[in-house]
Amino acid sequence: MKKYLFICIFLTVLSIVNAQNIYQLHSNFSKCKFGVLHEVINGKIDSTPRHIAHNLKGFVSKRLGDTLLINFWDINKNYDSFKQNKDIINSCDNDSSFAYIIQKSDWVNGISFTIPFSSWAFTPLNIPFRYRLEKNSDLEAQFLNTGVNFLKIWGKAKYFKKTQINPREHYWGTGVFLAFSQQALDSANTNGKVMTKDNIAAISYGINGIYSINHLGFTLALGFDNAIGANAKYWTENNGKHGLKPWIGFGVALGLTALSFNSSNSNK
User: Fold this and answer.
1) How far is residue 96's CA from residue 24's CA, in Å, rounded to a whole number?
2) CA of 108: how far to CAs of 105, 112, 160, 237, in Å?
3) For residues 217 and 110, what is the distance between their CA atoms, to the nearest angstrom?
4) Could you tell me the pTM of the whole model?
5) What are the tens digits of pLDDT across the range 162-172?
6) Pairing relation of β-strands 145-160 and 168-185?
7) Of the candidates 267, 233, 254, which has an alpha carbon nearest to the alpha carbon of residue 20?
8) Distance between CA atoms of 16 and 135, rounded to whole angstroms?
9) Residue 47 burial by CB count (10 A; 0-12/13-18/19+): exposed, middle or buried?
10) By the 8 A CB rule, do 248 and 220 touch?
11) DSSP string, the chain
12) How far apart are CA 38 and CA 50, in angstroms?
């Protein structure tokens, strides 16, 4: 069991480290929302307007009043054709920082400014409650489990005109998951094959949906279990060994912005 516990911890840490990176690398700013930017040179905002020819990858790195500081990266060779036009952001600007000044018309009712975003992301996952569909069972509670989601997410980040209010964001997504847990075997769930209680490891996998608001995510999953160990073959809920054994699960997932708030715009 110790090695499986180590795998659980490793996957959780890996997903936390990668959540921010994946979120950034796959997010796009839209020319519709951020059509006019200004380069930040030596800490000062240049007056020359710069434009986005196509969607660019990036994130909001800092807010200064009504100004959002934006960092782009991986501006590839597809933008080399714009090098002759200095008004267009191109691959020469990979290490540059830009500013977007929120206009008066951008504030909704003079209160908030919303940036839609989309992303591929890894997030840590825990599914403690499960209902097994193949048997008329009670809701199972198994808190000793951990795993990762791989999701496509869509959401909105909201900035408020009053800087004292922290940005808020919500998103929903769908994807696949992989998790590890501990399963107790006894005579009841092994058709009398295991008479002495035995704890074995189990791998869970399936599809799920998630909704997150202000760093707290809720997930609904359709999953399957495969046990690992000497007595695993006797477990009646072992998927594939005794036919399909699906379950519906309810759980929690860590929000991306619990690590670092990096919003981005797709305007889609």
Assistant:
1) 16
2) 8, 5, 9, 52
3) 29
4) 0.71
5) 988 888 888 88
6) antiparallel
7) 254
8) 35
9) exposed
10) yes
11) -HHHHHHHHHHHHHHHHHHHHHHHHT-EE-TTTS-EEEEEETTEEEEEEEE-SS-EEEEEEEEETTEEEEEE----GGGGGGTT-TTB--GGGTT-EEEEE--GGGSBTTTEEEEEEEEEEEEEEEEEEEEETTTT-PPEE--SEEEEEEEEEEEEEEEESSTTSPPEEEEEEEEEEEEEEEEEE-STTTTTS--S-EEEEEEEEEEEEEEEETTEEEEEEEEEEEEESTTGGG-TT-TTTSS---EEEEEEEE-GGGT---------
12) 6
Partnered with residue 146 across adjacent β-strands are 180
Asked whether the beta carbons of 225 and 237 are under 8 A apart, the reply is yes
HSE of 261 in the Cβ direction (CA atoms, 13 Å)?
17
Token pair of 249 as six digits: 């699960």
Q: What is the largest CA-CA distance in the chain?
A: 78
pLDDT in tens, 23-46: 333 345 654 566 688 999 998 999
Cα–Cα dist 248/222, whole Å:
5
Residues 6+ apart with CB under 8 A from 30: 52, 55, 265, 266, 267, 268
Confidence of residue 122 (pLDDT cuts 50, 70, 90): confident
Contact status, residue 117 vs residue 263, Cβ threshold 8 Å? yes
Structure-token pair, residue 21: 């990176």
Contacts of 102-109 with C-beta under 8 Å, sequence gap 24+, read 102/66, 102/67, 102/68, 102/159, 107/161
